[in-house]
User: Fold these one by one.
Assistant:
Number 1:
Amino acid sequence: MDIIANYGTTLVLVAALFGFLMAWGIGANDVANAMGTSVGTKSLTIRQAIIIAMIFEFAGAYLAGGEVTATIRNGIIDSNSFVDSPDLLVLGMIASLLAAGAWLILASYFGWPVSTTHSIIGAIVGFAVVSIGPEAVQWSKFGGIVGSWVITPAISGVIAYFMFISVQKLIFNTDDPLNNAKRYVPFYMFLTALVICLVTIKKGLTHVGLHLSDGEGILLSIAISIAVAFAGWIYIRGQKYNPQDDSKMHFANVEKVFGILMVITACAMAFAHGSNDVANAIGPLSAVASIVASGGEISSQAAIAWWILPLGGIGIVIGLATMGEKVMATVGTGITHLTPSRGFAAQLATAATVVIASGTGLPISTTQTLVGAVMGVGLARGIAALNLGVLRNIVVSWIITLPAGAILAIAIFYVLQACFS
């Protein structure tokens, strides 16, 4: 308690610095792999992907980032175990931010797409075990989170698989793929817009004071999605194509249409990612700020300070802009060959899965969700379409991440104790 009383402001400033570092790592790794499909299909340039991330990642983090934060802050460890020693919780959360952020930046430097969720959870569990003991960890909730790492890639993989199969059957494997694209692509636009609208209206706008009933939210989402589909239909109808083109040129024209959809799904992915994964950076920071502000009191409900969400959003965007290129290359071109139609199926499936998880307050790994979706698209063309060597390396990096976060957090925790005691 003396540490909080004597160094309260310093602790918050250090936590803010390390929280920004953690957000930087999220942008460099998790956002980069989320944008990798768009860049890998050449639907977006790296600069365009960064601009989209700047707008939609920040919007997702600021408007809809509070729901998952409570799970990261209060769900993994039992805060009651730290009631008599809140200084340990504060130092542990700071250590977790630095440990997870450092690991993410190292992984991004080498182009490894790892899980930010694994990093921060491993770090929090590591410091909790050495500071209080295994009883400080709510292992039942930890098990549920681990289960989600398996379930969500499976869900996104299945959605992506059937999404791409439907595109193949309705458009590409037909006698007139271009006209069928004009017919069916507006439906895919409707689905994409619906995913974005549901999370924005029912979740994001709640944080800015607009509360709609379930029925109102669904109706408004459907109305906006129909308008988007109609606008897409008009746009596609207005495009002029040469009917004398051969089948390869028809396929290329269809892919151009799906390139438009990739831009929309990139926006959806960025918003969904910002709403879910910003919690990995601001959760521990929010815990430190609230404990210091209350003089050491640990409460189960604490308002997030106004400056924390923007700090996380800005850090994510800067991380992507400065260090995201290597991870984008790994995900966008390494796992399987992606075209705009394949990338669209993978990205929409990922966005839908992340939005569902974010709405329920369950922290998931966007990395694993996206890789599952890309695998689903690849499997739709046969297992030979997958680069199993790259997948093996990705899985190994996932396995290493959890203990790496824990070991680094334990070491940093002991250093912080020595510095502030």
Note: The first helix runs from residue 2 to 40.
Number 2:
Amino acid sequence: MRNNKAVVVFSGGQDSTTCLFWALKQFDEVATVTFDYGQRHKAEIECAKEIAAKLGVSFRVLDMSLLNQLSANALTRDDIEVKPGKDGELPSTFVEGRNHLFLSFAAVYAKQIDARHIVTGVCETDFSGYPDCRDVFIKSLNVTLNLAMDDQFVIHTPLMWLDKAQTWELADKLGALEFIREKTLTCYNGVKGDGCGECPACDLRRRGLETYEKQKQGSDSL
């Protein structure tokens, strides 16, 4: 049934894997789509492929290498340092137009496989200032895609208003916390699991987990 089929925009990281587990609970059939945009760590794509196989969902990689030619950033270039934004500037890890293009191509793919729902792990709470992670952008693009393709897609953002501790809590409720901790790749330096422990992505992930574990211990002791 078309109304019960979803495509998850999937990177093999913490957020998109949490969304995949969420989608598996919500929809009768789930497919994943991953994008090769020239990211430094091809391990990210391999990680996504392994997780999709382990969870028994279809896996498709789309070539988005043109994005690397247009947008110089720390995720695709070894000569650009990974660093947070200062004085209102965006972090060096921001890839111009990435979510816009990924979601647009995910919609084209969804239509080909007769899926109505598109799931993405964008989040406005812990979003590093990325403009294409905002709720207003997602809602706007949803309308645009429906008009452009004369369809009725629904873009789902299960993590939009969650901080990282709450994202870990959701993973735990889905029975996937240990799976996500051990098998996902969020690290900007390409280290699976708990990562390098030094980059901004690892720092955010670790602090979120520590906060959630403390909250859980507190509630368990009541």
Note: The CA atoms of residues 216 and 222 lie 10 Å apart.
Number 3:
Amino acid sequence: MDIIANYGTTLVLVAALFGFLMAWGIGANDVANAMGTSVGTKSLTIRQAIIIAMIFEFAGAYLAGGEVTATIRSGIIDSNAFADTPDLLVLGMIASLLAAGLWLILASYFGWPVSTTHSIIGAIVGFAVVSIGPEAVQWNKFGGIVGSWIITPAISGIIAYFMFISVQKLIFNTDNPLDNAKRYVPFYMFLTSLVICLVTIKKGLTHVGLHLSNGEGALLSVAISIAVAFAGWIYIRGQQYNPKDDSKMHFANVEKVFGILMIITACAMAFAHGSNDVANAIGPLSAVASIVAAGGEIGGNSHIAWWILPLGGIGIVIGLATMGEKVMATVGTGITHLTPSRGFAAQLATAATVVIASGTGLPISTTQTLVGAVMGVGLARGIAALNLGVLRNIVVSWVITLPAGAILAIAIFYVLQACFS
């Protein structure tokens, strides 16, 4: 308690610095995963992907990031176990931020697509075990989170598989794929817009003071999505192609249409990622700020300070802009060959899975969700379409991440104890 009383402001500043570093790592690694399919299909350039991420990642983090933050902040460990030693919780959360941030930056440097969720959860569990003991970890909730690492890639893979199959049957495997694209792509635009509107209106707008009932939110989401689909229908019908073109040219023209959809799904994915994964950076930071502000009292549902969400959003954007290229290349071109239609299916499936998880407050791995979706698209073309060597390396990096976060956090925790005691 004396540490909080004597060094409260310093602890918050250090936590903010390390939280920004963690957000930087998220931007370099996880956001690169999210935007990798768009860049890999050449639907977006790297610069365009960064601009989209700047807008929608920040919006997702700031408007809809609070729900999952509560789970990261107080759902993994039993905060009551630290009631008599809140200084240990503060130092542990700071150590977790630095440990996870360093690991993510290292992984991004080598182009390894790892899980930021694994990193921070491993770090938090690591310091909790050495500071209080295994009883400080809420293993029942931890088990649910681990289960989500298996369930969410499976869900996104299934959605992506059937999404791409529907595109194949309705458009590509027809006598006139271009005409069918003009017929069906507006429906896919509607579906994509509906996914992102529902989470924005239901969760995001409550943070800015606009509260809508479930019915009002659903009606507004449908109305906006209809407008998006109508605008897409007008744009696509305005495109003129030579009817004498051969089938390959028709397929190329259809892929151009799906290139437009990729831009929409990139926006959806960026918002979904910002709303969910910003919690990995600001959850521990919010815990530190809350405990220090309360003079050492640990509260279960404390208010998130106004400056924390923007800090996380800005850090994510800067991380993508400075270090995101290598992981983008791994995800966008390494797992399987992606075209705009395949990338659309993978990205929409990922966005849908992430926003569902974000709405329930369950922290998931965007990395594993996206890889599951890309695998689903690849499997729709047969297992030979997957680069199993790359997938093996990705899985190995996932396995390493949990213990790496824990070991780094334990070492940094002891260093912080020495510095502030």
Note: The CA atoms of residues 18 and 98 lie 5 Å apart.
Number 4:
Amino acid sequence: MKKAVIFDMDGVIIQSEMLYQKRRNIFFEAHGIIVDDTFQRNVIGSNPVDMFAMIFPKSKDKQKEYLDKYNEFKTDYHIEFKEILTDDIEQTLRWLKENNYRFALASSGEYPILMRILEETMLAPYFEVVVSGADMPKSKPAPDVYLEAVKQLGLSPSECVAVEDSKHGIQASVSAGLDCLALKPNNYEVDQQLATQIINSLNDIPTWLSL
């Protein structure tokens, strides 16, 4: 029996992936970094540390240099998170709470940003556990962030279900031993074949849990 739902942030709670891609493109263009569409797909669900390791695999100095520049750039790039909340997220969270499910967040994003998003969208009270992949030995697609979330909940992987969208996130949750519901994106393509089930709406979560 499932006792908790562990959500990813980007592409699940907020529809941020295309905004983040636009933000990356602006930064890349300003710094003469050329990437293709395959690269953009591969970094969905990843994090800036891994992204710059992919761009500059032979230079730790360049990885750090551009990571610092990118983090500074992101600080000045304002996003209204309340305006990109995924449809039905609040309705779904209310149903889960009313039916005594517990909540965790397991995201590749940095912890301060995750908390800022939850607070600005007024969703913070729902989540008793928030785990950042940036604080783990390895971020997604490694299972560390999900294993830590399950541990903090005091549950077993079989008692939790993950809600993801990206290939990296799905692989992380499945490798940690969780069932995974993959929210199908509306405006980009991603490999979701490892998921337990692909869902078209967050409203499908209660239906799946009730089976």
Note: The beta strands are 4-7, 102-107, 129-132, 160-164, 179-183, 197-199.
